[in-house]
Amino acid sequence: MKTVKCIFLVAIGSLMMSCESDTYGEISGLAVDNPTYDANVQKIIQDNCLSCHSVYTDNELPNLEGYDNVKDAAQNGLLLSEIAAPYGQGMPEDGRMPQVLINTITAWADQGFVQH
Ligand code: HEC
Fold first, then answer.
1. Ligand 1 atom 27, closest CA
2. C-alpha neighbours within 13 Å on the C-beta side of residue 39
3. How much distance in Å is there from the Cα of 67 to the middle of ligand 1?
4. Distance in angstroms (rounded) separating the CA atoms of residues 99 and 87
5. Rounded CA gap, 16 and 109, in Å?
6. 42 CA to middle of ligand 1, Å?
7. CB under 8 Å to 21, separation ≥6 — which residues?
8. Cα of 54 to ligand 1 centre, how many Å?
9. Each residue's pLDDT tens digit, 23-63
């Protein structure tokens, strides 16, 4: 019985450690290397912005769905300054994204808005 319990605890332990190291890897990096819209930016915008900024939301906010709209907002709009603003003063309206996500979008813009 003791052995079973022990194996169980080890299994739980390594599960927790693997979760932890994933999270750590994500927040410890300054930015994803060579970010692209398809691989990185699209998901960040989807998770953090589209609840308010899409054609499906009943408001006049800029639509941030799709490569062209996000590129346009980053190039000609306030997207980059909004995401880099201090907590509570920029976007998303309800909080600031983790720095690694902000850096990833900024790097994507700096590197010429690579799509694929
Ligand atoms: C909870 C709803 C909400 C979320 C989530 C949200 N926004 Fe907004 N956004 C707003 C509202 C409301 C405004 C207009 C008022 C203002 O500028 O504060 C706005 C304005 C903006 C503007 C300025 C538009 C302009 O040209 O004046 C940009 C750019 C923007 N958001 C980008 C983003 C980005 C990028 C994200 C995700 C990182 C995001 N928003 C997430 C609600 C939201």
1. 78
2. 10
3. 17
4. 11
5. 35
6. 16
7. none
8. 11
9. 433 444 577 889 999 999 999 999 999 999 998 887 889 99
